[in-house]
User: Fold this.
Amino acid sequence: MLDNPRSHGLWEKTAPAPPATPRLEGSLSASVVIVGGGYTGLSAALHLAEAGTDIHLLEAAEIGFGGAGRNVGLINAGMWVMPDDFTRELGPAYGERALTLLGDGPALVRETIRKHYIDCELVENGTLHLAVGQDGLQELEERARQWQRRGAPVTILDAEETQRRVGSSAYAAALLDMRAGTLQPLAYARGLAHAAVKAGARLHTGSAVISTERNGNKHVLYTAHGKISADWVIVATDAYSTGPWAIMREEQVHLPYFNLATKPLSDNLLRSILPGREGCWDTRDILSSLRMDRAGRLIFGSVGALRGTGTGIHKSWAKRSLARLFPQLGDIEFEAEWYGQIGMTDNALPRLHRFDRNVIGFCGYNGRGIAPGTTFGRILARHILGQISEADMPLPLSDPKQPSLRGIKEAYYEAGAQIAHFAGERF
Ligand SMILES: Cc1cc2nc3c(=O)[nH]c(=O)nc-3n(C[C@H](O)[C@H](O)[C@H](O)COP(=O)(O)OP(=O)(O)OC[C@H]3O[C@@H](n4cnc5c(N)ncnc54)[C@H](O)[C@@H]3O)c2cc1C
Assistant:
């Protein structure tokens, strides 16, 4: 995509092909138009098409062009924020409803993958949230308590068990979440697209919505080569929003995040590094993540953009960090490198917006969009099908609003990551 190996990196190299999707041309009409070909839009498209709804999806670039094709592939249950923050911010009714749905999100992802035979390197061995020092351990203990009160299958592993599972002695403990897992994120998005097409959805790529107007109860969406009118519009453009709903991008602060993939490791190394193939991330403020792909490549990620001075700084920090974490790796070569922008909201919680009558969308998954996007996409479909009322949605409606000092925060994230990685005070 974009002819840029740093946009979708390894995922583009190893994902099965997407379905053939023409651009929107001429003048069409539909019951529902979905804007955005990531998890939210594709999940909504799949569920609406399965219910027999006449739907078209418009994607500006290609399927999985946004966060869906660039992420780490951790299928998380819940968000970065603590579970109790949901009820504190949203009240008990919305808070617990959202938590239940998000906790069940990975199961929906697995069910969807199985039902539609999606080949996306699904691994169901849980995730490890890795404690750095005593502060990290305390944070995980509190997180575990809050999830366990809600019956979630999470456990704290001691330093010895963590070392056995990770293959490194760098961590004080880990929180094992058996609801979670990993997948190949672009393969999952493309698999959802195939399933949606098979169910009857019509997908258009290279079809950025550039303007929209209201014609009575109909919404008319314009692209460079066509227009389409619909009764309902789902806006699923999230942090990569352009065009009429650019506010969805503007209400989020972009946090750059990169990934580097080694060559496939030898069988010997695979026995000592993540032998159980759990996906991992740590408790640092400038966090790092670790996971394997199906071929045994170790994928290491952290905050930062691989552009300008950042490329050299982040890559050399990553080599030093991996050498310290896993001395057994020896000389480390990266086979792929890429980065994307994670959309962060002010309160680190997702949002539900209604932009006009029958124009709705979720956004702001704060780096946790695989399961939430799949789940909330289905909820939007069910809402349109009349199966879920507005009062029963997992989040209250809110007006999009710009966060204060967005530009300064984005510059700070990027510069802060470069400084931290340049200084290398990491392990
Ligand atoms: C580097 C990185 C690492 C991440 N790691 C993880 C992880 O490990 N686990 C996890 O769960 N989540 C992770 N995330 C977050 C996750 O990728 C996103 O939350 C998720 O992709 C959001 O899905 P979405 O469908 O809402 O939006 P997206 O996947 O961003 O899709 C939005 C789509 O809308 C299209 N679009 C925008 N404007 C228009 C327009 N005007 N007309 C037509 N189309 C338009 C875009 O081209 C894009 O394809 C990560 C994100 C990044 C960037």
